Each structure stands twice: as structure tokens, then as C-alpha cells.
Amino acid sequence: MDPFDKTASDGLRLEASREKASGKGVFPRIPENSPAWERFEPILLSPQATLYSFTVIHPNPKTGLTPFTLVYADFPEEVRVFGRLDLAEGARPRIGAALRVVAASEGGYLFEVVEESHEH
Length: 120
Description:
Low-confidence stretches: none
Radius of gyration: 16 Å
CATH architecture: Beta Barrel
Strand content: 35-45%
């Protein structure tokens, strides 16, 4: 099951939950069969987030895998989501960068950097 709404008109939006009593948001969405379901309401996160933190993983060279970046992204709904960042080769992540949610080819989601306009 993919954790996002593919029908949103403004792009992919991750499904999360908000605790009714405290207003605290959590990701992923609390499933309906959870004993905690009644305490939460489902919400859709905005299509864009802000890069909060990142780390670059360098797999053992014997695996043949290339380095990849994992991030925490903050959404306007006050929900922080962990995921993989899709970067162009040689690109470096920047704290505070705008990110968008995209579908991963192997299923699920990942983040990509929103192209910044250099116009004044």
C-alpha cells in the first residue's frame, strides 16, 4: 500500500494522522485496525516540505551500491517525515531547501528538491 494520495490535484500528498486531543501529527497514517484509531483523524500533508536534516549513506564498496541521501522533511502541518532524497549526481542537499513528494519507481515515496527560481 502506498502512503500517499495519488488523486490530489496539487501533486502527491502523504497520508498522515493527527491526534484529536493534542493536535500532534504523525506519519505514517494510523491504520483503521489500530487500537489507537479512534484517537486520531486522517490528514493529507502538503505536497511540499522543507529539508530539516540529512545524512549521506556510503554503502560498503563490495555491495556495488552508490551513496544515497536520507532526510527528515518538515511539513506545514507540523509533521516530520523520514525518507530518501533523490538528488542529481554531484548535487548536495541544503538545509531549508524546498522538497516535494514523488512516487518511487520501486513503490512508496521519496523526496526531490524543488527547483528554485533565480529570477528577481
